[in-house]
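FIELD: query
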Amino acid sequence: MDHIAPSRAPLVLAFLFALVALASPAHAQGQQAQQEKLKQLKDMAPAHGYIKAHKDVEQPFDLLGGPITATITQESGGVFVALPAQRELDPYVFGTPQMPRAFAGTPGVNGVPPMARDVADGAYTRMKQPSPFGDKYVVMADGRLNLTATDATATDAATTKDELQMQASWKDEAGNTYEVRCCAMLASHGMEFPTFGGVVTNHILHGFSRIGTALMPSEYTYLAFWGMGEVRKNGEVLEQPRLIHGMLTEYVRTEGYQLASDEEVTPTRRHFHLMVAPFMPVPEELSFTHKPVKTGFTLPNGMELPFWHVMFENLEISAER
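FIELD: result
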C-alpha cells in the first residue's frame, strides 16, 4: 500500500466529515491554524510507531499454525445501506469530557476530537457531524456477495501472502445496480492502525481497540480485509482505486436496527459489513485525506451519498486451515 499515489482532492468543508471544522474550535484563526491542529491530531494516531516498525519488513512471519482460507457468500435477500447519521458516543469507548478517549488520528476514520462531540449533563452524547455510522438506513434488494480470502501473513509488512477476491452488489428501488469489487491490491500495512497484511482473522476491531474507526462498536471479527478496489453503477466504473474495507463480525445492531453500544453487541449472531469510506490513504504521511465516494446514489436532499456502508445478513460461511 505504500506505493499508492495519494489523493490530491481538497478537504471538503461542507458535509460529511468536514475535517477542518471537526479538527478545530470555532474561534481558531485562519486556515493555517486549522490545518496545524488537524495535523497534530493525525500525528497523534496511537499506532503510528507500530506501523513505522513494520512497513518496510520484506519477510514477515506467517500466521501461527498456517493459513486460514474462508468463503462468505450471499445469494439472495436484501441489504441494509447506512445513511448519514450522528453517532451516539459510547462512554466506554470515548470517555467523558473530563477524561476523553479515542480522539487522536484523522477525525472520523480513526478518532473523534473532543470539539466534535456534543455534551449534555457532563457527558458526551453524540458526534456533531453526520457519519456512515448511526441509526439511519435504507433497505435495498438483491444483495449478493461472493468473497474468498486467505489470511497467511501475520503482521503488517511491505509484502504479504494474504489474498482476497470479493464482488458485492445490490439494487435500489429504481432498479439501478451498485457494485464494489476488491482487491486489486491489499493494504499490506496500515496508515493509522494495523491491517495485518491486508487480511486478518479472529481479532477484535473498532471501538476500544482503535483498529479502525472508534465510531463502530468493539466487535469480535472473524475475518476482515483492507485493500484497493473499485466502485460501479450499472456496470460502469465510477471510481478506482478506492480503499475498501470489509468484515464478518458479531452482530452490532439492536431493535430498530440502531447501531449498538459495546454492551449491546450480540455475540451469538453475525453479519458482514462492506465499507467504502470517504477517505483515501496518504502513504507518505501514514494518514488519510477526505475524499467523498462517487456512489451514484442520490439522497432525498438531492446530494450524492458520499460513502457505502452496506450490511449483508443472509450469509453462507465456511473456513478451513
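FIELD: remark
The helical segments are 19-22, 30-43, 48-54, 91-94.
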